[in-house]
Specification:
heterodimer, A: mainly alpha, 18 helices
Chain lengths: 462, 482
């Protein structure tokens, strides 16, 4: 419970700092707050705390929730540091945006820790509504407006569909509580049409939120149109939260009948991988390219959801962490480059980066190689976990699609890498501030260290 | 512990080079190479003594990611591979001593990282770690080719090289994961046992997956198309690494993974692989004959020789594997030698078209002699290292199938055709205006060539120590199969 309180108070504190004209304090407060949040998670580890247990107890802070909260907080810290200079230009809107982001993080934490369908929906909306605003936050940019508009319309439709699904499941089981739904669902099996329709709708709604084919069409436009910093946020925190929630549903409430949906999810994953990777390989705009890459990673992560009752959540968490670190690095670098190149975010903008800023080029190279799944980088292990899980589940054909799509992915990641190492004439250096340089170093280190430290995953269970 | 030291040293040296040794990068690289060689010799000595203290092995199970473990051991087979790597490392560094590379510290750091990962692949006893090292070796060489390579299509060439080899090795990952499902551990011994228990057809599919992975890297026809262009456009040291050591990871993989893991699969379906290798030998030899540029000729000749190498290993008997061990060493040394000769020609004439050369022997007889000795090694003249290796390989292959041995044995005949013809075109005849001012060899070039020629002859005349070194391990390996 402390976790949600801290982040909510953090959001209010950010707004208060604006009222009391203490804008300089906003950034340190946020970082400290998020660090405190991580500390709380460590303190609560293993306690399985249910706040307000006597009044319904709609939240459950088990290890899965705490671990996801920790990862979400850590990624948020990285995000705030990497994007810090984006907000420095216009101080008047800085606090507003920061407050919106913090509230959105609060929604993400709720989505990781719900034990009641109502909380799931609340968390989803707390996460999404600030994001609609954030996507359109570049008021004078038509693309940003388009992104916000599309995201809002389609996002609210998806929320409505999820809500409808929740209602149908309530109709079938008479409860919002995950545990009750779990026992009822196992009892009902496939006999209840209401239940099956409800789960299908939840899958469809979430497929939209995590941008899985065939519900992914909004993602490239929104990712491209939204400010790059917000895109980075959507590609990391939002995905982490949505996958945490989906995993929680499929490993808990729907565990009894999830095998009837495994094939559907497997096909969705396969279609996502094929479509996203093929389209990505012909992109010339690097932001769109990264958007499609992000979609294809959602296809990989769907493998964990599909076999949620067999694969432990920690492996999904590892994927989310490895992917978020790499994704954040690449979007961060892209943001810095396009800022220097007057908003040019085609792949050509990356040319000569190795001369213009070797640290960013190195971090970007590592992150791309990690996303492609080259050992010894964390992305390799992440893909390894999902592939071995899916193979254990008996879906050899999906494994082959996953592996072939990795090769295609390598192709378009290499295109960016080649561009970075192509020398160009009279290129000025790209200057970033010291904390960002350090942060890129930390992110690069993490990409390697997570690989070697992953043995620690075997010591914990959740 | 010693194995770990040999494994870690290149990485540490690379790190040191990047952080503090920018000015003396190549000196650090050479020193690392020599220390590595000495350490390997020490390891050989310890191995001969029986290694009572377990200095060559490290078992640290269950600490790695998922079932993997950080376990390393050097048996006879690994030691020959270590010897190959550590003999060639100082030689390759010294061969490019006079070259000026932009950002030399980055170049040599990548070189050392690549060597380090290959040493890892040669010494690990864990299949997943083997895969990791096998894959990781690709990254440094990719950047060496991309940044320091030459040629118009360098980005395209390297892209093809990278994707092709990545594509191949992912099949190995599938195969390893498939076996892991029944073994529950990636340790070689567990993997052997689990895979042996599988049916012949299952083993056949696994063999196909492994073979595709290794055939791309070796390369074997029809998976070779990345190789000539890459060898042509990589920087000299990179080409030497690729031809000298990197492809041996694949042939080592055949010995270490395929043979003991899939005996029935090899027995049942191995002839398809051997047939491809034999085709590869003839095809590449014919391609080599029609090449006009010397560097491409060496590239194709390499395909021909390793085709025989892979076929001999897959025949799966003592002679074949032992021949493979010597041939790997010999091919590495001769390959580095030939590419070095190419570099001498290129640096003086600024082209490598053989028709425009000729008569260099008149101008520079010493170079002609040394070059000829390397060519003799390549065409497997008795008393050179090439002879020992290819002779044993052919004996092994003959026991498997006389026809296959007959076809693959053409490498000796056809090899003589293209090698001697190229030598004739380059060195013999009357000197023309291009070659008449062919400068004398520098002391540096002489040193490299003499070392290479000496190694070719020493191994050719007295291969017994190397054969003895790997003999017990090879026999143990085969014992496990039967």
């Amino acid at each position: 419970m402390k976790e949600i309180l801290i982040i909510s108070l953090l959001g209010i504190a950010v707004l208060a700092a604006d009222i009391f004209k203490q804008r300089k304090l906003v950034f340190p407060i946020i970082i400290l707050g998020l660090l405190a949040n991580i500390a709380c998670c460590i303190m609560d580890w293993g306690k399985n705390e249910v706040p307000f247990a006597n009044n319904g107890g709609m939240l459950l802070f088990d290890n899965l929730a705490l671990a996801f909260t920790m990862v979400i907080s850590a990624i948020s810290i990285f995000w705030f540091v990497v994007t810090s200079d984006y907000f420095s230009g216009d101080t008047s809107k800085r606090t507003d945006l920061y407050a919106l982001v913090v509230f959105s993080i609060c929604g993400a934490v709720v989505m990781a820790s719900f034990s009641n369908m109502m909380m799931l929906f609340l968390g989803l909306e707390i996460l999404s509504i600030p994001l609609y605003v954030l996507a359109a936050s570049e008021k004078r940019n038509i693309l940003s407006n388009e992104a916000g508009f599309k995201y809002f319309f389609l996002g609210s439709l998806a929320s409505a569909i999820i809500l409808f699904g929740i209602a149908l499941i309530y109709g079938a089981t008479g409860s919002f509580d995950l545990a009750t739904i779990g026992t009822k669902a196992a009892m009902l099996g496939t006999s209840s049409t209401l239940m099956m329709a409800g789960i299908t709708m939840i899958i469809a709604g979430f497929a939209f939120k995590i941008s899985v084919a065939p519900f992914h069409l909004w993602a490239p436009d929104v990712y491209q149109g939204a400010p790059t910093t917000i895109t980075a946020f959507m590609a990391t925190i939002v995905k982490a939260a949505a996958f945490a929630a989906l995993y929680k549903l499929f490993s808990g409430a729907f565990a009894g009948i999830s095998q009837h949906f495994a094939l559907t999810l497997a096909v969705m994953s396969a279609v996502t991988l094929v479509v996203a990777n093929i389209i990505a390989s012909v992109q010339v705009n690097s932001k769109r390219l990264l958007a499609y890459s992000s979609i294809s990673h959602a296809g990989f992560m769907l493998g964990f959801v599909m076999l949620a009752s067999q694969i432990q959540g920690k492996y999904l968490l590892f994927y989310v962490l490895a992917y978020s670190v790499a994704s954040l690095t690449s979007f961060g670098v892209l943001q810095h480059i396009s800022a220097v190149q007057m908003g040019d975010d085609s792949t050509n903008a990356f040319k000569g980066l190795v001369k213009r800023n070797p640290i960013m080029a190195g971090a970007m190279t590592l992150s791309l190689l990690s996303m492609a799944g080259i050992p010894p980088l964390s992305g390799f292990l992440a893909k390894y976990y999902v592939i071995s899980g899916v193979l254990n589940g008996g879906y050899l054909w999906l494994v082959i699609i996953m592996i072939l799509s990795s090769v295609v992915a390598m192709y378009y990641y290499l295109k960016l890498i080649i561009a970075m190492f192509t020398p160009i004439e009279n290129a000025g250096r790209i200057v970033i501030n010291r904390s960002q340089t350090i942060m890129y170093g930390v992110l690069s280190f993490l990409l390697i260290a997570l690989f070697f430290g992953a043995g620690a995953l075997e010591w914990i269970t959740f | 512990m010693l194995t770990i030291l040999i494994l870690i040293l290149p990485f540490l040296a690379a790190l040191a080079m990047l952080l503090i040794g920018k000015k003396i990068a190549k000196q650090i690289a050479l020193a690392t190479g020599i220390v590595e060689l000495l350490l390997t010799l020490a390891a050989l000595y310890i191995f001969k003594q029986g290694d009572a203290n377990g200095l060559l092995t490290l078992h640290n199970t269950g600490t790695g990611p998922l079932g993997a473990s950080y376990s390393f051991a050097a048996d006879g087979i690994s030691l020959v591979m270590l010897l190959l790597t550590t003999v060639l490392l100082p030689l390759i560094v010294y061969a490019s001593w006079t070259k000026t590379y932009k950002n030399a510290h980055a170049f040599f750091a990548l070189l050392l990282m690549m060597v380090g990962s290959m040493i890892g692949a040669f010494t690990t006893t864990d299949a997943l770690m083997f895969y990791v090292f096998y894959e990781f070796a690709l990254i440094p060489i990719y950047f060496m080719c991309l940044v320091w390579g030459n040629g118009d299509n360098i980005a395209k060439t390297t892209l093809k090289f990278f994707l092709y080899t990545l594509f191949g090795s992912l099949f190995m990952l599938i195969a390893l994961l498939y076996i892991y499902q029944s073994s529950g551990s990636f340790a070689f011994t567990d993997m052997y046992a689990a895979a042996n228990a599988m049916s012949a057809s299952e083993q056949g599919w696994l063999l196909a997956a492994f073979f595709v992975a290794f055939a791309v890297k070796i390369p074997v026809f029809p998976f070779h198309t990345w190789q000539p262009a890459t060898y042509d456009s990589a920087p000299l040291a990179g080409t030497m690494l690729l031809a000298g050591i990197m492809l041996k990871m694949a042939t080592y993989g055949l010995i270490r993974l395929v043979l003991p893991m899939l005996p029935e699969g090899v027995a049942e379906y191995g002839h398809w692989c051997i047939a491809l290798c034999a085709i590869s030998v003839v095809y590449a030899s014919c391609m080599a004959i029609v090449q006009k540029r010397y560097r491409l000729l060496i590239a194709y000749s390499s395909i021909a020789h390793v085709g025989l190498l892979a076929a001999g290993i897959l025949s799966g008997n003592v002679q074949g594997i032992q021949g493979g061990m010597v041939e790997m060493l010999s091919h590495g040394i001769i390959g580095v030698g030939l590419f070095f000769v190419y570099d001498i020609l290129q640096s003086r004439l600024h082209h490598d078209e053989m028709q425009r050369m000729g008569g260099i022997r008149e101008v520079n007889p010493e170079f002609a002699f040394l070059f000829f000795a390397i060519v003799m090694g390549s065409v497997a003249l008795p008393a050179t290292s090439g002879f020992v290796g290819e002779f044993l390989l052919l004996i092994g292959l003959y026991q498997y199938s006389a026809i296959a041995a007959g076809i693959a044995g053409l490498t000796v005949v056809l090899g003589a055709v293209y090698m001697l013809r190229s030598f004739q075109q380059i060195m013999l005849g009357a000197s023309n205006h291009n070659t008449v001012h062919f400068a004398a060899l520098t002391a540096h070039e002489k040193t490299v060539l003499y070392i290479i020629v000496a190694l070719i002859i020493i191994i050719g005349v007295y291969p017994a120590p190397i054969l003895e070194l790997s003999n017990t391990s090879v026999e143990n390996l085969l014992l496990g199969i039967r």
